């Protein structure tokens, strides 16, 4: 699947927006489901959003639905996560990952390739 590289993290204030990007080799984004996960200090890593090769999307309904949007640009081999109306509870390291198509997109165990992560910090 090759290497995935996240970018776009940073320090913002509550209510601001950020756009994260995940870059990878063409094969990963043409054939695999791509997901975003996050891990806050002292907490388990949790599912944020995913996009299948068909374009079908899934979101963590409890925490980000309605504020975050995942999208894919196959021509640029990137998957983006647009994050709006950020709150301090969104502070975490955000990871991009790739999974075999057909595996449950919300399960961390479905993903076999991971990026190094990018830090998002939201101040109140």
Protein architecture, described:
The protein has one helix and eleven strands, in the order βββαββββββββ. The protein has 124 residues and is mostly beta strands. The model has no long low-confidence stretch (mean pLDDT 92).
Alpha-beta classification: mainly beta
The run of helices and strands is EEEHEEEEEEEE
Mean pLDDT: 92
Tally of strands: 11
Determine the fraction of residues in helical runs and give it as a percent range.
under 10%
The outline comes out as globular
DSSP strand (E) fraction?
over 45%
| Cα Rg | 13 Å
Distance between the termini: 38 Å
Biggest beta sheet summary:
7 strands, mixed
Number of helices: 1
| Model regions low in confidence, pLDDT < 50 over at least 5 residues | none
Short note summarizing the structure:
The protein has 124 residues and is mainly beta.
List the helices and strands and how they pair.
Elements: E1 5-7, E2 10-13, E3 18-23, H1 26-31, E4 33-39, E5 46-51, E6 57-59, E7 68-73, E8 78-83, E9 92-99, E10 111-114, E11 118-123
Parallel strand pairs: 2-11
Antiparallel strand pairs: 1-3, 3-8, 4-5, 4-9, 5-6, 7-8, 9-10, 9-11
Summary keywords:
mainly beta; globular; 124 residues; 48% strand; four-stranded antiparallel beta sheet; 1 helix; seven-stranded mixed beta sheet; 5% helix
